[in-house]
């Protein structure tokens, strides 16, 4: 039984495509579709702190709806306005969002010998209580969406969250996290397992609150070598894919499609297709046609994968990239197996009209009359 009753879904294209069904056109959404490139985002945020916006269901739902309102019938999903770093916060770590710079942990994890690591490993985290504001935002957003499009919930992947927790923010060197995996592999794995269990509960409670599909963002997967990906990312992504359905069943909730986005880990596409996810998000390092071949007849849908940078370019370039994608994913012949997205989140300073043109070109070039 669902926890809430919501208005019926008028556009279920994305959910049908995610289940591998043949569809009339490929569904579209973009990662970070609510965010800094939208003037209305800055207006609604009105100088407030980023995490304060995440914690306010009213503001978070308003921001989530902005791209749906702006782009009307051109896009097929909303994604709840939040951040992957709410999990480290729920675990007791302080995370600030520094304007124009990104996330900052004043007190990142140092070594497994530290009191902080030991306490973190021992602490029971009440995911229901700590992240209650996210569930409230999801429920309110489902109501405000009024069935226009389905709503994504999401989590950071254990590996990517670990990177932030030990690096303390963005990094180019990955010095701390590489020290952890190569010096303290067992303690690293114990922490990754703990994060994975929290991710499962967090996603299950998002579904309970109204999320209709979920995505696991492994934004730093590509920093791992193929063999370290197998040790430090893959087992935990697989754990989530195995245990979320079990937890949903236990809670008496319907199953939802699961998307994994292992950014940069192109070598792992084949392995990811056997991990239990219905959809694999791809960055722009993949040739769609080769990815389709690697998947073969396995029931996996691909999501992606235009270079977000094309949105800084000319309309001719956008048309060219869309044409290549439509051809590469074999849309005209297959009519299934593809959810359109960029290969990573949309970047600041993109003109929203150029994103709109990208959407329109997808519609135009996949139209069947
Ligand atoms: C790595 C990561 C983070 N957060 C997220 C990821 C994974 C996706 C990815 O790889 O891009 C996930 C995320 N963050 C945000 C969303 C909202 C939903 C959506 O996609 O529209 C989602 C899905 C809002 C946000 N998260 C953030 C903003 C910008 C905050 C602001 O300055 O107003 C937004 C709208 C801040 C953030 N949060 C994070 C960083 C590195 C930054 C700074 C860089 C940036 O600004 O893009 C951590």
UniProtKB/TrEMBL annotation:
CDD domains in UniProt: URO-D (cd00717)
Pathways involved: Porphyrin-containing compound metabolism; protoporphyrin-IX biosynthesis; coproporphyrinogen-III from 5-aminolevulinate: step 4/4
Enzyme class: lyase
Keyword Lipid metabolism on entry: no
EC number assigned by the record: 4.1.1.37
Cellular localization per UniProt: Cytoplasm
InterPro entries for this protein: UROD/MetE-like_sf, Uroporphyrinogen_deCO2ase_HemE, Uroporphyrinogen_deCOase
Keywords: Cytoplasm, Decarboxylase, Heme biosynthesis, Lyase, Porphyrin biosynthesis
GO molecular function, one term: uroporphyrinogen decarboxylase activity
Catalytic activity as recorded in UniProt: uroporphyrinogen III + 4 H(+) = coproporphyrinogen III + 4 CO2; uroporphyrinogen I + 4 H(+) = coproporphyrinogen I + 4 CO2
Domain Uroporphyrinogen decarboxylase (URO-D): 27-36, 152-168
UniProt keyword annotation of RNA-binding present: no
Any one GO biological process: heme biosynthetic process
One Pfam family hit: URO-D
Superkingdom of the organism of origin: Eukaryota
GO cellular component, one term: cytosol
Record function comment: Catalyzes the sequential decarboxylation of four acetate groups of uroporphyrinogen-III (octacarboxyporphyrin) to yield coproporphyrinogen-III (tetracarboxyporphyrin) with the formation of intermediate hepta-, hexa- and penta-carboxylate porphyrinogens in the heme biosynthesis pathway. Acts on a number of porphyrinogens, but only coproporphyrinogen III can ultimately be converted to heme.
Family according to the record: Belongs to the uroporphyrinogen decarboxylase family.
NCBIfam families linked: hemE
Record's protein name: Uroporphyrinogen decarboxylase
Protein's organism: Cercophora samala
């Amino acid at each position: 039984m669902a926890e809430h009753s919501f208005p019926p879904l008028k556009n279920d294209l994305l959910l049908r495509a995610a289940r591998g069904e043949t569809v009339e056109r490929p569904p579209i959404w973009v990662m970070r579709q609510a965010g800094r490139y939208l003037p209305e985002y800055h207006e609604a945020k009105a100088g407030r702190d980023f995490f304060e916006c995440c914690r306010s269901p009213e503001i978070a739902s308003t921001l989530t709806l902005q791209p749906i309102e702006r782009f009307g019938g051109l896009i097929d999903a909303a994604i709840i306005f939040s951040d992957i770093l709410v999990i480290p916060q729920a675990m007791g770590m302080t995370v600030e969002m520094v304007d124009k710079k990104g996330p900052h942990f004043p007190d990142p994890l140092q070594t497994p010998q530290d009191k902080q690591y030991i306490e973190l490993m021992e602490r029971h985290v009440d995911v229901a209580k700590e992240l209650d504001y996210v569930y409230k935002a999801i429920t309110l957003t489902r109501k405000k969406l009024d069935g226009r499009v389905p709503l994504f919930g999401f989590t950071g992947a254990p590996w990517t969250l670990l990177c932030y927790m030990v690096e303390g923010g963005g990094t180019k060197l990955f010095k701390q996290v590489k020290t952890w995996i190569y010096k303290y592999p067992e303690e690293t794995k114990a922490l990754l397992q703990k994060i994975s269990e929290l991710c499962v509960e967090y996603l299950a409670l998002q579904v309970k609150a109204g999320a209709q599909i979920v995505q696991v963002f492994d934004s730093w997967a590509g920093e791992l070598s193929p063999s370290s990906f197998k040790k430090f990312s893959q087992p935990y992504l697989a754990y989530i894919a195995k245990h979320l359905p079990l937890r949903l069943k236990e809670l008496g909730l319907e199953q939802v499609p699961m998307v994994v986005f292992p950014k940069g880990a192109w070598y792992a596409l084949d392995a990811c297709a056997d991990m239990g996810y219905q959809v694999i998000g791809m960055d722009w390092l993949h040739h769609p046609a080769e990815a389709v071949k690697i998947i073969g007849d396995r029931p996996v849908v691909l999501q992606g994968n235009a270079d977000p940078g094309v949105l800084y370019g000319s309309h001719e370039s956008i048309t060219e990239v869309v044409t290549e994608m439509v051809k590469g994913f074999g849309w005209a012949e297959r009519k299934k197996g593809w959810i359109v997205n960029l290969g990573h989140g949309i970047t600041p300073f993109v003109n929203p009209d150029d994103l709109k043109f990208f959407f329109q070109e997808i519609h135009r070039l996949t139209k069947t009359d």
